[in-house]
Amino acid sequence: MVGSVIAISGPELEGATEPNLSAEATSSSAKASNNPEPHDAVLNPIDRALEDIGFGRFQIMMMAICGMAWFVDSVEAGGLAYIYVTLDAEWRTTTGDWGLLQSVKSLCSVAGALGFGMAADKFGRRPAFLGALAATSLAGMASAASQDFYSLLVLRSLTNVGAGGILPVSISLLAEHLPPSSRESCMVLMQIFFTCGHVLAVVLAMLLPTSDGGWRMFLIALALPTALLMFAWPLIPESPSYLQMSGQETKAKDALRNICLRNKGGAEALVFSEDLQHSAQDQKADQSATGVARLFSTRRLAVHTCLFGLLWALTNSASDFGNWITEIGHEHGIQSHQVEGFMIVFKVVGVAAFITSAVFARGGRGPLILRGGYLAATLAAAAASAVVTLGGSRVLLAVSMAVLFIPYDVVWSLIYATTASSFDSHCRASALAVATCFSRAAATVVPLITGKLLEHHEFFALSFWTLAWAAATCVACLISFSVPEQNVKEVKDLSAP
């Protein structure tokens, strides 16, 4: 099969040593035919073109833009926990109130994920991304004006409608602009933005005053990066995979030319092979098998989708411990700033952990590392439970809880990448939205349970989280982290000239 990118020309390259993409593409295709890699057999024409163009400045820009989704998810997952104690004193709230807030937020995230995810597969990644971004930033800013717990509940719930949708859409948008050979490693590195969001929340909680409305400045500061990203809307492109899938052949080619222009610096024209043209025509003729309808069109694909949803639900349930770090520390007489200091140190260690994971995830080893991360998290959670049961010191408890964040970071960085790689572009955004819905549905119920468990004793909550990590480990071992065979056949058919 001849590569999708056949030649490059441009006045800036005249008289210079011009890279022969035609030779490179033909050579790589010849190598693939003699010694095929597992992923080559399922590359559609757009992925083949992205692979031939390669990784460059355009992908770095997209990682920076889409990274805001991980930032927002981090803030919404655990950032608010750092003002709970302050508002307990100001509004006389309890752990039960914060459990209610977490549950309602999660329910709104389900609606946002499903709504924006389906919109991304139907109307495009770009408009869905911008819509979710606008909802998140505007409602997040408004929540700083809350006058009581219930107004905060309403405004943070609206924030989560946008936040719930921004992550699955941005994962699809980023994955569909990355060369397949770099996709999993780059997606793992996006966890840096998740860590940045968490560290920013901790630093702001330490620096801002706990009285005189300091928590309002805290909420404004957390929403500010998302609001500023709105001004970058002209830079946010549409996915070439979506354009090809919707039969917009000319726009898909223009999108690929733009990527090549940014990466190669001066390329004006690309010549595409006929497989892209045939594929776009086939897609235009068949618009039915996309989105959620595609996910549940066959029993095999439906089971595949539900298993991923269950994995996300269990992972979110197990990760609920992050919402209660300050409350658990407070019960053991640990000052909030001490807990925050521990968190910063171990989040930095976590960065090293998932950068290492990104390196080892290359070559299809992501699922293996993911399963190892689940097992490590199970053992770390069990160790924290043992410390509580045996009456260990406060320092030992704080360290055991903080250590749990290392496999936690590894797991969450890889689950995004492996899920995105396990579905094709026809239903990728919807698949991520469904997985997010499972996750948020669990998060709607779990805080209510753990909030009540913590009112009795933290051992019960720690045991619950340990069991959730163990169950997630079992499910991860059952899942086949690959595009189902039926989808592979369809992709092959689309790639045939």
UniProtKB/TrEMBL annotation:
Q: Where is region (Disordered) located?
A: 15-40
From which domain of life does this come?
Eukaryota
Q: Which residue numbers delimit the Major facilitator superfamily (MFS) profile domain?
A: 62-488
Supply the PROSITE patterns for this chain: MFS
Enumerate the Gene3D superfamilies for this protein.
Answer: MFS general substrate transporter like domains (1.20.1250.20)
Q: Where is this protein primarily located?
A: membrane
User: Which terms in the Gene Ontology molecular function aspect does this entry carry?
Assistant: transmembrane transporter activity
Query: GO CC terms on record?
Result: membrane
Ranges annotated as biased composition (Low complexity)? 22-33
How does the record classify its membrane topology? Multi-pass membrane protein
Alphabetical keyword list: Membrane, Transmembrane, Transmembrane helix, Transport
The subcellular localization recorded is: Membrane
Note the SUPFAM superfamilies from the entry.
Answer: MFS general substrate transporter
**Transmembrane stretches, by residue range?**
60-85, 127-145, 157-175, 187-208, 214-236, 339-361, 368-389, 395-417, 429-450, 462-483
The family database entries (PANTHER family) matched by this protein are listed as: SYNAPTIC VESICLE GLYCOPROTEIN 2 (PTHR23511)
Q: What is this protein called?
A: Major facilitator superfamily (MFS) profile domain-containing protein
